[in-house]
Amino acid sequence: MKTILVPVDFSEVSRNAAYFAGNLCNEIGPVRLILFNMFDNYMSGSDGSLMQDDQEDRKAIRLMALNNVCREFEVNDTVTIECKAEAGGSLVHTLNKVVADEEVDMIIMGITGASRLEQIFIGSNTLRLLKHATIPILVIPPEVKFTGCSNLLLAADLDGDSSHLPKSKIEALLHLFPMANLHIVYVNTHNNTTLNEHQQSEKVKLENWLELRTPEFHIIAQTNFIQAINSFVTSNKIDILLTVPKTNAFLNGIFKHTHTGILGYNSVAPFIAVHE
Q1: How many domains does the chain have?
Q2: Bridge partners (DSSP) listed for residue 139
Q3: What DSSP letter does each residue of 25-90 carry, written as one string?
Q4: Burial class (CB in 10 A: 0-12, 13-18, 19+), 156
Q5: Residue 129: per-residue pLDDT
Q6: Tell me: the pLDDT tens digits for 194-233?
Q7: Is there a single domain that holds both residue 177 and residue 55?
Q8: Which phi and psi angles does 182 have, rounded to 5°?
Q9: What is the pLDDT of residues 100-122, one digit of tens each?
């Protein structure tokens, strides 16, 4: 049974990620779904001074709130839901600990928080997790609802070496959606649709590796990678994007600082980051 972890800070974005996860789990069960909340080690007063409080009481309140979130969506009998809350100082450190302790297979999370400060905090932590995670992370854009998974997109890098791909992790993810159409997309940012010898060789390797899924291969010539992917996602009704972010450039293209200083999100579809 796979274990999926959803961090919940009770913002609308995190609640939406929980709803998405619940509906996704209904389709891919049996699954153990954990809703998790981290609260601060200490509370501060209006003057900034530390206040003594009972962590067990605060934990009980958080668990009650998580259970209320669970009641807002339905799961079938293939899904087991658990609620967990822990005090912590660093969201990334605490999540990594929970992942190890609970043997989590995948994290599903939103991007922004309930307030402007939380949007900066949660967004930057999502980015840090994506850069350093050892397990796949499925990121859900705000307001995106789960409507099934009929079309998957695998973003390919024909300029690299496909032998370094985390093939077992990608295969495990594809196995979750056996009936979904698989699209492999290579964006040539030099505006060239003609493949050189190395790129053609890498294309053949990918097609041979995934031949049982009969993937459709697409080459897009566009200088802006994110715009190219988003355009393809929209026009082909892609439900989930799979990517192997070898460099931080991809992730920094997904997240950007807007003029208000809030971390914005540029992807129009949920995406799973799978590291080598």
Answers
A1: 2
A2: 109, 271
A3: HHHH-SEEEEEEEEEESSEE-TTS-EE---HHHHHHHHHHHHHHHHTTS---TTEEEEEEEEEES-
A4: buried
A5: 75
A6: 999 999 999 999 999 999 999 999 999 998 888 888 899 9
A7: no
A8: -110, 125
A9: 999 999 999 887 544 444 444 44
Both tokens of 208, joined, read 């041979």
> What is the crossing angle of helices 116-132 and 91-102, to 10°?
50
Domain carrying residue 260: 151-273
**In this structure, are 170 and 74 located in the same domain?**
no
pLDDT of residue 250: 60
CA 125 – CA 71 distance, rounded (Å): 27
* Range in 19-28, 62-71, 143-152 the model is least confident about: 143-152
Q: Residue 153 — φ and ψ, nearest 5°? A: -120, 125
Q: Which residues 6+ apart lie within 8 Å of 250 measured at CB? A: 225, 243
Last residue of a domain, one of 87, 117, 139: 139
CATH number, domain with residue 194: 3.40.50.620
For residue 265, give both structure tokens. Answer: 């999100």
Which of 139, 174, 200 is the endpoint of a domain?
139
- pTM higher than 0.70: yes
- Residue with tokens 């291969």, as numbered in its chain: 217
pLDDT digits (tens, 9 = 90+) for 153-185: 999 989 888 888 889 999 999 999 999 999 999
The amino acid at 76: N
Q: Where are the alpha helices (DSSP H) in the chain?
A: 12-28, 55-70, 91-102, 116-132, 167-175, 197-209, 225-235, 248-254
Mean pLDDT score of the chain: 84
pLDDT band for 258, please (50, 70, 90 cuts).
very low
